[in-house]
Amino acid sequence: MTPATGGATMRRSASAAAGSTDAAPARTPRFLAIVGPTGAGKTALALLVAQRLGGEIISLDSRQIYRGMDIGTAKVTPAERALVPHHGLDLRNPDQRYSAGEFGRDARRWIDAIERRGRVPVLAGGTGFFLRVLTEPIFREPPMDPVERRELEDVLAGLPRDELERWVRRFDPDRAEVAIAGGYQRMLRVLSITILTGHNISWWYVRYPTEGEALAGVVCLLEVPRDVLDERIRRRAVEMAEGGLVGEAARLLRDGYRRGDPGMNAVGYREMVDHLGGGMTLREAAERIRVATRRYARRQDTWFRHQLAPGAVRIDGTAALEAQATAVIDAWAA
Q1: How far apart are CA 2 and CA 8, in angstroms?
Q2: Phi/psi of residue 222, nearest 5 degrees
Q3: What is the β-pairing status of strands 86-87 and 120-125?
Q4: Which of 58, 65, 86, 307 has its CA 20 to 30 A from that of 109?
Q5: What pLDDT does residue 260 have?
Q6: 46: closest CA among 29, 34, 30?
Q7: Cβ–Cβ under 8 Å, residues 313 and 29
Q8: Which residues have C-beta within 8 Å of that of residue 271, sequence separation ≥ 6?
Q9: What's 143-209's CATH class?
């Protein structure tokens, strides 16, 4: 057991790592995933691993799909994209929806194409639901009027978080904790589907067909002690606030996007919109970003610890980057 793995147990089968039971027959892994909370160091690790393996990176980040939202989402730079091909970035405008189901369909196409090129699909990010739709496919959403849905979600987005959580628990108690852990977009989805169709998501899961077959993969969870992660998040919040996030948010507002848009309600942007509107100083906005990001990272950490299968490989996020990459590559080769 090496320090680089942080006590991790290497996978015995692709099915165990991807979310199936140990009793299920082993399947050939279709992808390598590097997941973890915000600030854990997934981007740098994925870039190094992809270069070593001859891979292409698929983003598992529900905010990096938005165009023009680069600083606040810590999106990879053009120079980093030149090193390794990336997929799943800049797919939508900030006022457009992009569901986990849509990601599942897109990611399956990307994985197929990457494999045909003889390369390794490397998934990296902190949106656990994006990973889950590949290993445990979800139902295809029923048709809903897009205008009604947008208007409804605009109203819901104006509610305090604790009020949203209360309604999610009331409407869909069986899936409430999973939805709440997924953040605003996940809760809005639960509420809008329930209100507009008359049935909650738990009902639809039982009765509607799923989005494709389950894929096997090797999943590596990047773990960082809470105090170390908190300090990384503090530095990131200050760097974003001082490094152009104000200008990025101002440009998005000038382009006609609003605080309640699917992309604009992300951590960092809503605080900057409030700052630009005179509601708080830049220092206060940076502090609110730090607090909100830390809470989000806590929810991510809880989700990954409880939702990933026991076969997932734990990687010490405080080890040297080379050691982390070696542990991930060893897991893929095992």
Answers
A1: 9
A2: -85, 115
A3: unpaired
A4: 307
A5: 83
A6: 34
A7: no
A8: 280, 285, 288, 289, 292
A9: mainly alpha
Query: For 280-329, how does the pLDDT look when each residue is reduced to its tens digit (9 = 90+)?
Result: 999 999 999 999 999 999 999 999 988 887 789 999 999 999 999 999 99
CATH number belonging to the domain at 229-294, selected among 2.40.160.120, 1.10.10.10, 1.10.260.40, 1.10.287.890 = 1.10.287.890
Residues of the chain with pLDDT under 50: 1-25
Q: Where in the chain is the domain with CATH 1.10.20?
A: 143-209
Structural contact between residues 35 and 315, judged by C-beta atoms closer than 8 angstroms: no
pTM of this prediction?
0.78
Report the length, in residues, of the chain. Answer: 334
Phi-psi category of 268—alpha, beta or left, where left has phi over 0 and alpha has psi -120 to 50? left
Residues of the chain with CATH 1.10.287.890: 229-294
Inter-residue contact 91 to 156 (CB < 8 Å): no
Give the pLDDT score at 185: 77
With beta carbons less than 8 A apart as the criterion, state whether 84 and 56 touch: yes
The per-residue DSSP string of 47-110 comes to HHHHHHHTEEEEE--SSTTBTT--TTTTPPPHHHHHHS-EESSS-B-TTS---HHHHHHHHHHH
Q: Which residues pair with 31 in a beta bridge?
A: 217
Q: Residue 209 has what pLDDT?
A: 65
Please count the other Cβ atoms lying within 10 Å of the Cβ belonging to residue 140. Answer: 16
